[in-house]
Amino acid sequence: MQTIETAALQHLGIKTLNPMQEAAHKAILQQAEVLLLSPTGSGKTVAFLLPLLSLFSPTASGVQCLVLVPSRELALQLEQVWKKMSTGYKVNVCYGGHDARTEANNLATPPALLIGTPGRIADHVQRGRVDLTTIPTLILDEFDKSLELGFQQEMEFIIKGMQQVSKKILVSATSAIQIPAFALVKSPEVLNFSAADTKSAAELSLRLIISPEKDKVNTLFQLLCHLPAEPALIFCNHRESCERTASFLQEKGLETAIYHGGLEQTDRERALIRFRNGSVHYLVTTDLAARGLDIPAMNQVIHFQLPPVETDFTHRNGRTARMNAKGTAYLLISQEEKLPKYITEAPTENPLPKRSALPAPPLYQTVYINGGKKNKVNKFDVVGTFLQKGQLDKDDLGLIEVQDYNTYVAVKTAKVSSLLRLLKDEKIKGKKYKIGIAG
Fold it and tell me: What pLDDT is recorded for position 197?
């Protein structure tokens, strides 16, 4: 392993690669075509980004690798990992909902690594902002998800335009997939680590919760009151179910966020930030959150509604019991419902007590600043302002996320009111910004 790769791992806080990452590193450097199959949470991002450091040339002037991803969230996650690696190579991300003019300005000087959704990348190509003809490496991350979301035409257009591509890497968390013909992949080296996602009884426990009512929201509330007050994904099959379920839990006094494809991008982003930083314990979501998102592993997931197909059930469960940790998946059904056929063994039934106290509220709230990287605001500016002018201690601050035009800070709930009062007329780097609670 080259020195630049070793340094990148140190920046990521990784001492050694896991077996999947080792195999991927070797194959990507040696083979022209690689298909990497590995479950959510296994470290696939590092597995395919790290070898790029040995493939890139510091003297090259164009894009050296294009990564196509199905969602904005995954694009930002990859960018975050690459920047944390401190490689010295420029990276740009392009996705729907992002300011196209900002992207165009960034692309005026081509990055070594270009990450984007197929629709936005295709648009930049058509406008002459991205030259596909000289890019040597193509990575299709979660490519099956991109196809599910209807990006086939854009992906086909992009791949046809990559006339000099010499290396193709396809990545997925799903093993039962077919490589589309338009990908022009002939005989890839297949690295199938998906078997590692088969949870043993010691790793993943399935618990059956039977609701006495057809409408299961009261039973869900009872379950959450029974469980420890810690992060949980609550999966529904439809957007309307997410909205209704989250509203019910909020009315019951549980801090809850919603995440699904029908929300505005800023609302989806804010929900994930609040969930990541501990401002909310419960994220009610569709299968959109089952994979490809930068959220921590958790001890429990809840299937408020069971999905119709097994692969979605597997991906949901992949959010817990990751990397040899233990976890529990709770399956909620009414007395009239039957378990899907893909669940071959009946889970252990978990009766609930009739009464439980409300879970403890989150330790943090999220404070919002309408300034970010493009305003020259950085994490050190925020910490300095909050500690000095806001009279906080370091222990009062949690996760801080600085984006292009916004910043989100987790602050202990007990200190939020005084912080907002003290910062009402204060400035950051000589400029007045709006500071409030991100609800």
Answer: 44
Instruction: Please tell me the pTM assigned to this model.
Output: 0.74
pLDDT the model gives residue 198: 46
Average pLDDT taken over every residue of the chain: 91
Q: Report residue 385 as tokens.
A: 């302002």
Mean pLDDT of 397-411: 93
Q: Is the pLDDT of residue 173 over 90?
A: no
Domains of the chain with CATH codes: 3-197 (3.40.50.300), 204-349 (3.40.50.300), 364-437 (3.30.70.330)
When pLDDT is averaged across residues 269-292 and rounded to a whole number, the result is: 92
- Residue 150: pLDDT band with limits 50, 70, 90: confident
Question: What is the pLDDT confidence band of residue 17, given thresholds at 50, 70 and 90?
Answer: very high
CA-CA distance, 93 to 17, in Å (whole number)? 26
